[in-house]
Amino acid sequence: MSDADTSTTNHAIVERLDRIEAALLKLVDAVSAIADRGVTMPATAPAPAPAAAPAATSAPPADPDPTGPPIIDVAPPTKQPPVAAPRPAPAPRSPVRQPTTPVASDASVFMPYADREDLPVPPVDAGYQAVLTRVFEAVQLDDVEDTWALMARLTHSSQLVGPRSLDHFKAFSWHKARRTAHEYLDATRAPDSYTIDYTEPATVDANVDRVKVFIRKPGNRLPAPIVLARDPKADGAWRVAQISL
Description:
5 helices
């Protein structure tokens, strides 16, 4: 290093030392002024050490102060049961429709058209042929409701067990008989102009309570059976148990 560089460095160091000295003098003057006014600087105390956690003890709790107010034992709140939402009231049922067909005093007997006394049936002492004649008369009536009424009165009580059985006869057996009955009669279509081909049993006497009658059909076709039986609900009179015209 040259002498010039050394001189410059020494000069810079001297200037820095001068500034440090001036700052120290200002600090000394400030401390002296404070001392003259009687103000002392508080000593800086060391930071307190963190307190240790208290050790857990199993000592019983202290007895309550007998002079203090009485201790009230408050029970914990009880959980209320859930309130069920009210159920809607059931809708009123439709009234049950009562049958319009008169029914006998015995509730187990279904007797439709019992009030149609204008359509009489053969009496108890009449033979089964009289019932057959009345059947051919019934299926040829002009008013279909009269046909239903008379056929119902001529039908065995065991076959009419309720309104549905009555509807079945109207839709099938009796309805077909209205269309085909004339094929078993002669040209006059008189209700007694039918011809019995044979019966089972062959002889029908007072001891027979059921007979199967085969009505001849023109053209050498197979005869149609009609089954008749004595009806205890009609005092033992002959009534139609099955018809297949």
